[in-house]
């Protein structure tokens, strides 16, 4: 599974929509905020992903945010953490979300992606450890022959 990507135009459009909703006090400003957050965390630009993570954290529990909105923002925060390499934090957060919303398909897909990523990282770690152990054994064997 691949996560969708946003582009510069989408980020700019969502930012404009967010700023307009904020300035006019629209009742849909929470939705505009979530769309802007989505565009940021799905950006290929790491700085924007960091901005999206900070924005998501600022949105949580804020004015006008419903329980559903907060769940979406938690999911977006998890996506940002995944994209920033904070896989363990992302998995913990998405698993907490799945406890309260087990039917949230996008969260389940992200959890599956995180599990696969963490399993791959663990295998790489084991391989590196085995390689280092092999090198150490060769060094010890070489020293023992002297």
Please provide a brief summary of the model.
This protein is mainly alpha-helical and 146 residues long.
Description:
- The chain is mainly α and 146 residues long.
- It has a single domain, classed as Serine Threonine Protein Phosphatase 5, Tetratricopeptide repeat (Alpha Horseshoe), CATH 1.25.40.10.
- The chain has 6 helices and no strands.
- Helix 3 runs antiparallel to helix 4 (67-83) and helix 5 (87-100) runs antiparallel to helix 6 (105-145).
- The longest helix is centred in the last third of the chain and has 41 residues, at 105-145.
- The relative contact order is 0.09.
- Pfam families: Fis1_TPR_C.
Mean pLDDT: 87
Query: From the coordinates shown, what is the CATH architecture?
Result: Alpha Horseshoe
The number of distinct helices, counting runs of at least 4 residues, comes to 6
Rounded to the nearest angstrom, the distance between the terminal CA atoms is 54 Å
Over all CA atoms, what is the radius of gyration? 21 Å
Fraction in helix: over 70%
Helix and strand run: HHHHHH
Largest sheet: none
The fourth-level CATH homologous superfamily is Tetratricopeptide repeat domain
Q: In total, how many beta strands?
A: 0
Would you give the CATH topology?
Answer: Serine Threonine Protein Phosphatase 5, Tetratricopeptide repeat
- Which residue ranges are poorly predicted, with pLDDT under 50 across at least 5 consecutive positions? none
The domain tally reads: 1
